[in-house]
Amino acid sequence: MEIGKIIKKNKINEKEIIFRYPKIEDVDDLLKLINSLVKEKAYITIQKQQTKKEETEWFFKNLADLLNKKKVMIVVEIDNQVMGMGEIKVNSKNPYKGELGISLRKEIRNLGIGKELIKELLKVGKKELKLKLVLLYAMAPNKIALHTYKKCGFERVGEIKKGVLHYGKPLNQVIMVKYL
User: Fold this and answer.
1) Would you say 69 and 62 are in contact if contact means Cβ atoms under 8 Å apart?
2) Has residue 107 been placed in a domain?
3) Of 63, 108, 141, 179, which has the fewest CB atoms closer than 10 Å, so is most exposed?
4) What is the pLDDT of residues 91-141, one digit of tens each?
5) What CATH number is associated with residue 76?
6) Domain range for residue 69?
């Protein structure tokens, strides 16, 4: 994995969409991304605003995991700003299995960018990490995400009743899997 390397370019609504590996300069944009999701109370597990220190620590831990082939991570850049990101973490006990997660700013949802991001993550995960299957957990009310995952070939394999707390409210957690 090459820091900052462009994986794919696309055009949507006259805007160039760049899918690339993260670089150190992304920390501020990634902080804006996560905090925008917290502010809108998006269906993510982080539920409090992050500080620059917390985001920087998170970033460098993830950078080490990237370089040690314990995960893949791709950012979505539009107009020189990171507007989304996705990752697949390798399961430490079963290295043929990974866990996927993506985050997109509200402004770029429903444009097909999430689907493209997932496809690129799966391609890189299979090639670089030798993954054979990828699973994910999604909050059951997040119908748009569940639909996107299904369009990308993920199959629903189960549901954990009240499996996650979302701002104090227990929500069911859907488990999906895709074999590579």
Assistant:
1) no
2) yes
3) 179
4) 989 999 999 999 999 999 999 999 999 999 999 999 999 999 999 999 999
5) 3.40.630.30
6) 6-132
